[in-house]
Amino acid sequence: MAVSLRDVADAAGVSIATASRALGGKGRVSEASMRLVRETADRLGYRVNTLGKALREGSDGVVGIVVPMVSNPFYASLVHEFEDQLSRRNLKLLIADSHGELDREVERLEALASRRVRGIFVVPAYFDRSRPTITKIARQLPLVQVDRRVKDDSTLTFVGVDNADGIGQVLRHVFEQGAKTVVFVGADNRTSVGRERKKAFTTGVEELGLVAQRPIIDRYLFEFGLSAANQLMRRAELPDAVIAGDDLIATGLLSGFVRREMSVPGDVLITGFDGTILADICNPTLTTVQQPMAKIAEVAVAQLMQQIDDAGETGSHVRLRTTLREGGSTARLPTRTVPRSTT
């Protein structure tokens, strides 16, 4: 259960008003009281509701973004690019984390809409269940879906990447590295991205004549990657290559194999998807699909500004190309130069 401001005030033995002033740095409060309240808040794990605070202070010049997990390096990087693009237009970005939960997503979208922010970017938590609220909010103010989209969204604007092309690139790459058996370790059908990448894997395997083992499906989490590595180790035959649904899963897989004293890429090849900092800091470095995050933000902001200015129609879908970034996790044979997309 989340710690409330009242909990902090009661534990510190002060009024709610005093606790609020001490944590907010506004109003008159003694140094001793401020130190006591802040130490109590830290001890209890209290976190200021930045969304509510920002909305109470006014929404003029503010654009909101709702992401499923801001701690995911992909979304952290994406948010940074959005902040950069919006600051050039003298707009501020208000970040809300849905934690991939429908109730929290609905709450945050409705909170942003009720205060009439200039517009909203949203990464839907669900392909189907997120649709009613997102469709409703899009009728009230400018809205752009980013990275993921909802079901039957022809009236909603979307900016993301060509997931099928990205998965196709890594499949062709491991095929060229000599892989014959492959397995997909990715996310379930709750998101459009999970659906698209899994479908692209099946299509790509058939086109290349690869043999696909039974997939392992869950969520975009490092811990899931660790678990999946253990599951694969218990199988009768380890695949030549593992195609992960994102970099978090891929680094979990890599860590899981290394802990079991398996060689990557000697015993198994691993690929990721997103091109986050994780790909560079793991050992060996990760072969991954690089998403053009700066371009995604640039196009999405342009789409939102067109809606704000009443100069653009909703319902446009923009798919940007990805590029393959080769790392040590698939380096069995000499690497080749992969041309980077200019799209």
UniProtKB/TrEMBL annotation:
Keywords recorded for this protein, A-Z: DNA-binding, Transcription, Transcription regulation
Domain HTH lacI-type, residue spans: 3-57
Highest taxon in the source lineage: Bacteria
Coiled-coil blocks: none
GO molecular function annotations of the record: DNA binding
SUPFAM superfamilies reported for this sequence: lambda repressor-like DNA-binding domains (SSF47413), Periplasmic binding protein-like I (SSF53822)
Protein name as it appears in the record: LacI family DNA-binding transcriptional regulator
Organism: Amycolatopsis ultiminotia
